[in-house]
Amino acid sequence: MLVIVGYIVVCGSVFGGFILAGGHMAVLFQPIELLMIGGAAVGASLVGNNSKTIKASLKALPTIFKGSKYNKAMYMELMTMLFDVLTKIRKEGLMSIEGDIEKPEESPLFSKYTLVVSDHHLMEFLGDYLRLMVSGNMDAFQIENLMDNELETHHHEGAMPAHFMAKLGDGLPAFGIVAAVMGVVHTMESVGIPPAELGILIAKALVGTFLGILLAYGFVGPISSLLEQKLEESSKTFQCVKVTLLASLNGYAPALSVEFGRKVLYSTERPTFSELEEHIKQSKSK
């Protein structure tokens, strides 16, 4: 919703100001200029990116119109689930969760936490490291190093759409200049026409520069920034799981391990100690 509102504000401010200054909107409607700028930008993106980056970017674009699922309710559910898992391990041993890990969607331990289970990547991350804990062949330092490497890979992979859009936005002003230069060339070859018609051709040529800059900084550039923010939000869930499991491996009780995980969350979504404690109690009573 904020993306749409933002675009409306951008268009309203730019085009509204142009109209208030006495400009005519018809002169800004230059589909040929848009074809030149957009086509060149898309073509350059195809040259400069592999199919993996392009597919990831196309998949990520629809998410900019959706609100974040990483809110307080999501984190409360995640930490309550981690508390239940660690409590079961403490009472019944690591081998007791082996069956739960293999089919989490069918497990009584996991299935009631629908918000978390629906996140395939998060559950895969959690399941993999619980398996390593069950195997008993790795210490906390080895697991932490492996987690750090995986999180780094996740971050680089998740950043591809943001980098794609950033590079696309960076190129648009230059392609706008290309379109403007082409318009000037066309104007110069028509130098013998009446001044009134010549002025129209010059105006059309300058629209190319305007469109390139507007598209770059008003539309494409902000998408890159938003995708980076969404990536950082998704990374917090992995960091929460990482810190909680490592605290458990170092011998801390489930309640204290979950508190370690709570502390890495952003303050805007982080539940208070009392809120989390109450949520865990309510979960036990169900």
Automatic annotation (TrEMBL):
Example of a GO cellular component annotation carried by this entry: plasma membrane
Alphabetic keyword roster: Cell inner membrane, Cell membrane, Cell projection, Chemotaxis, Cilium, Flagellar rotation, Flagellum, Hydrogen ion transport, Ion transport, Membrane, Transmembrane, Transmembrane helix, Transport
Principal localisation: membrane
InterPro entries for the chain: Flag_MotA_CS (IPR000540), Flagellar_motor_stator_MotA (IPR022522), MotA-like (IPR047055), MotA_ExbB_proton_chnl (IPR002898), MotA_N (IPR046786)
MotA/TolQ/ExbB proton channel domain span: 125-238
GO biological-process terms attached to the record: bacterial-type flagellum-dependent swarming motility; chemotaxis; proton transmembrane transport
Keyword Transmembrane on entry: yes
Annotated Motility protein A N-terminal domain residues: 4-93
Bilayer topology: Multi-pass membrane protein
Compartment annotation: Cell inner membrane
Spans through the membrane: 6-29, 168-186, 198-220
The organism's place on the tree of life at top rank: Bacteria
Family: Belongs to the MotA family.
Descriptive protein name: Flagellar motor stator protein MotA
Organism: Undibacterium fentianense
